[in-house]
Amino acid sequence: MEGPIVGVVDEAGKHIEPPPPEVVEPDPDLTPEEAEQARKDYLLTRFWISARGFWGKSGDRLAWVFSVALLLMIVANVAFQYGINVWNRAIFDAIEKRDAASVFHLTGVFFPLAIGSVLLGVAQVYGRMGIQRRWRAWLTNSVVSRWLTNGRYYQLNLVGGDHKNPEYRIAEDLRIATDSPVDFVSGVIAAFLSATTFIVVLWTIGGALTLTVGGSAVTIPGFLVIAAIVYAAIASGSITVIGRRFVQISEDKNQAEAEYRYALTRVRENGESIALLGGEEEERDGIDKTFGHVLKQWARLAGQHMRTTLVSQGSSLIAPVVPLLLCAPKFLDGSMSLGQVMQAASAFTIVQSAFGWLVDNYPRLADWNACARRIASLMMSLDGLERAELGDGIGRIKRGETTGETMLSLHDLSVTLDDGTAVVGDAEVKIESGERLLVAGESGTGKSTLVRAIAGLWPWGGGSVNFHPDRRLFMLPQKPYVPSGTLRRAAAYPAASEDWTVEQIGEALDKVGLGHLKEKIEEDAPWDQTLSGGEKQRLAFARLFLHRPDIIVLDEATSALDAKSQDKMMELLTKELPNATVVSVAHRVELEAFHSRKIVLERRKGGAKLVSDIDLIPRKGKRRLLGRFLRQRKPARSAA
């Protein structure tokens, strides 16, 4: 669990993102069940730590305007309710007396009251939903910003914690987590004001009720008020007992829905591989099993709704009848007029509705509880990554700058998992301008992890990765990302598609062997599904030639190409960007011909070690390509 969080303002008055809450270790005397419950209880606190910022200095500038306006409209709406309640008494008294003039007059009075109440209701909806919309936008912006900063969206896949399906939490859970509190607060305020106002009405109209019990007269002061409170206590108590497991069931249902959606998304994202392997039946079994779990959770939720509906529906039917029965003796003995009876019945119903607010909203309250906990769990996982970036807990790889002609250096670099388990240890490497370094080693020695650490995607470890301060880095992964939209956008990514002309992009596609797609540059199509693995890797090289970076990191970037195409692509890279510094991870021996240097990682106890660092010797024929494009090599280094 974690402690409180405080915002910071710099000297210029600009808000600075506050640091993540500090970790507070749970009480060691707690049982595992108690510790888990304490963690769940804290999740709501963690949600409010961030969510309340909407009304703070860095919050929405109209937050308080909307909030105060909504409060005023709620007060005015209760005033109109009271006016209609008084009108209710007057009209029935006039009808009882057969006073036609008063009936016509009161009929004219009713319409302004009704119109005013309706307009206030509409304005109240606008104000309430305005707060909900702006609060959701503000908090979504905050969470998404934290999620996308420093590659945390990627790092969440590498660390443990309750943050599965973050996209669902941000899109759906956060919506409910910001919608429901506004409804709850406005509902509670309206219920409190209504109950207070109409309890006075009930006390004034109903007065005392005298009953004869065993020959003795018993007087009950404010009997209608007591009846309303007792009735509401029974209804609310029943719903509390019946719905005590509502929160957990709602949370389980939301988690099941998220997992089902994730399973469907996985099929879409990996459609080609599934189709080629004929895995439809196996995928269908997995989807059916996940969907079965969803249906099971919905069945549990349906049972809870049925039980709460039994109370709420019964309460709504009985509530209007109770005051009529209670007032009947006083009406029959002439101590109450018909108008007073109808006013009392209306007031009783309003008070009962106010007291029974929990009955009507407990399911939504439970759903909000579950959603707020899920979004708070994501926040806590992001807190952990932020604390690690600030140097707390597990060691972090430092990022620095090189001097002179050194483009990239690894100083005493060690790479670990997020729990501190060593992957690569004590790497010491300097890469000069124009060098082309090949990282080799058996599978599982941490080559790709080392490359991710160099690119800044893998933060855990020690030592430092240093870059030349005036150079740009560009990484080509084994599976290139192809965004939705036009081919032009896919080729220009991550820059804007307008940064290059159609002719320039077409020329880049021609170079990498995708000239047949030039006519489709402006076509909006599912290119991620359309292009083959080899075409995606060629597209990645086209991006590279458009961006023309100074430092290039290749992680198995030609693994989907045949040997001939690979040689052509690497030769093209050497020709197009002869001065670029290249760091490659690859298994194919043939790639040595396109690199000036090779380091080899070998698995050892305590993490993989750098066991050799050598200059590559030029070979005959086409393997002498580097001689034409690269600077003269340095003498061979001794093995590390």
From TrEMBL:
Location in or out of the cell: Cell membrane
Molecular-function annotations in GO: ABC-type transporter activity; ATP binding; ATP hydrolysis activity
Residue ranges of domain ABC transporter in the record: 408-630
InterPro entries assigned to the protein according to its UniProt record, in alphabetical order: AAA+_ATPase, ABC1_TM_dom, ABC1_TM_sf, ABC_transporter-like_ATP-bd, ABC_transporter-like_CS, ABC_transporter_sub-D, P-loop_NTPase, Sigma_54_int_dom_ATP-bd_1
Keyword Nucleus: no
Keywords: ATP-binding, Membrane, Nucleotide-binding, Transmembrane, Transmembrane helix, Transport
Record PROSITE patterns: ABC_TM1F, ABC_TRANSPORTER_1, ABC_TRANSPORTER_2, SIGMA54_INTERACT_1
Membrane topology listed for this record: Multi-pass membrane protein
Membrane is among the record's keywords: yes
Pfam families (UniProt xref): ABC_membrane_2 (PF06472), ABC_tran (PF00005)
Cellular component annotations (GO), alphabetically ordered: plasma membrane
Main location: membrane
Location of the region described as Disordered in the Swiss-Prot/TrEMBL record: 10-31
Sequence intervals crossing the membrane: 62-84, 104-126, 184-206, 218-243
Residues annotated as domain ABC transmembrane type-1: 68-367
Family under the similarity heading: Belongs to the ABC transporter superfamily.
Function: Involved in beta-(1-->2)glucan export. Transmembrane domains (TMD) form a pore in the inner membrane and the ATP-binding domain (NBD) is responsible for energy generation.
UniProt protein name: ABC transporter ATP-binding protein
